[in-house]
Fold this sequence. Notes:
Helix content is 35%, strand content 17%. The chain has 451 residues and is α/β, with parallel strands linked by helices. The chain has 2 domains: 2-189, Rossmann fold (3-Layer(aba) Sandwich), CATH 3.40.50; 208-445, TIM Barrel (Alpha-Beta Barrel), CATH 3.20.20.70.
Amino acid sequence: MILLINPWVHDFAAFDLWAKPMGLLFLASLLREGGCGAALIDCLDRHDSFTNCHPEVMAGRDKKFGTGKYPRMRIAKPEPYAGFPRHFHRHGIHPESFRRKLAEIDKPDMVWITSVMTYWYPGVSEAIRMVREVFPEVPVWLGGIYARLCPSHAQRLSGADRVITENLAGIPQMIREQTGFSPSNESAWGDFCSWPLPALDLLEPAAGYAPLLTGLGCPYRCPYCASATLQPERQRLGFQRIMEQIRRGQEILGASDFAFYDDALLLEAEQSLRPVLEKIARDGPKVSFHVPNALHVRALSRDWCDLLYASGFRTIRLGLETALDGRSRQWGGKVHSEMYLEAVENLFAAGFSKDDLGAYLICGLPGQAPEEVARSIGFVRQSGVRPLVAEFSPIPGTLMWNQAAALSPFDIEAEPLYHNNTFFACRRPDFTYTDLVALKRLAAKTNPGEG
Ligand code: B12
Ligand code: SF4
């Protein structure tokens, strides 16, 4: 049996914006299909009763559409954040609850830990330390986004026996070498379209929502994004697989809210997502879809917007990044302002209200001036949409990484904590942390249409 662990988030702030450990859920289903048992401990379970009753914990709280606040405990700030004027927290279950869950489980043959943001590595190391206390001889493997973007840091500091950076195709062979057990479904591992459905039954049933992934990769190469490094190949599921994911989310979790994790949900979706949404718009089921990761604005033609509305999309985020067309071209040209205005018109005409919509604007990129962001905020507000400022966070392996490293007064190459968007490591004399805070306030200040 392999024990899968979704570790804590150590951060200034974290909110469960439909965040589930999708990678681990797919791995669990691959393992089971191949004949190997799998169990999950989710340190980010918001409804853990031991945790929410514990006097040291600020309890979690449910919010709209299945989202919510994680339970959290104030912890000491890591040294690189000394002097940064924010409190620091461990988000997720109480460590004692984690220890109890480990103690209740039969000794696994291996422990697999995932990782998401690079700057969340302290939660990963803490989980590995505690696993070692309970199962000192069990091999611990670490995979996921931090492991792939910062492999040498993870090898040195995570405490894992092995850091996995390889494509899943090679994992069955590694399992065989480690345990002597051969998964019977070896050929499925390397092909996303052959993966079994994610093991939603391992999530706590009160989750309230289900994650959906209909495709991997993105055809664009925006210089600040790691999509191409993490998922170099484009693959899309067909009608049947997507419908099954939705049906199982309803059956297993009782979910009526679904969040898409795709990097490029609406691109090349004519033969995959479109027929699914057409069927749902026509015959049900009545569900709500949310897209916390931005949609590609260029895909939002009138008929796509009508379809999104009719099939139950409720939270739409648009990837605008900047309203300055020159800048946009420089950053890969995924959208321009006229295209954006047309998309917004289509969304409103389809029936969406301003409460459903938000447009991401990236803030603080190398070379960008605060006035550019302020202008973009004004432009988005004028269009009737809520501007959402996303602080630039430098990501290893991206086209902009070297520029960010040269610009930042902090050692972002040696210390992943500096990749934290809240910390804003690329602050500089002509784009200060105070500028960033002021821009965030400006974006939050007035309601759409009032600016
Ligand atoms: C969905 C998503 C979100 C969701 C939630 C994600 C979550 N689960 O918590 C939401 C919308 C909330 C989100 C928010 C943000 N995100 Co985000 N997000 C993603 C996205 C698109 C997909 C992640 C995912 O679930 N993939 C699908 C699963 C199947 O893949 P996976 O987890 O990698 O797992 C696979 C392998 O890694 C492997 N694996 C995983 N674990 C293990 C373990 C073992 C042992 C093994 C063998 C294998 C293995 O197997 C899996 C199957 O192949 C990625 C981009 C990407 N393409 O990865 C960005 C990404 C992770 N996000 C990123 C960023 C910057 C953010 C934000 C900071 C944006 C912002 N400025 O606001 C916020 C921060 C959120 C916060 N503070 O709470 C960056 C990461 C930056 C970093 N420094 O690490 C990414 C990489 C995008 C980018 N810009 O390049 N995000
Ligand atoms: S379009 Fe979005 S997912 Fe694709 S590379 Fe650009 S930021 Fe990343």
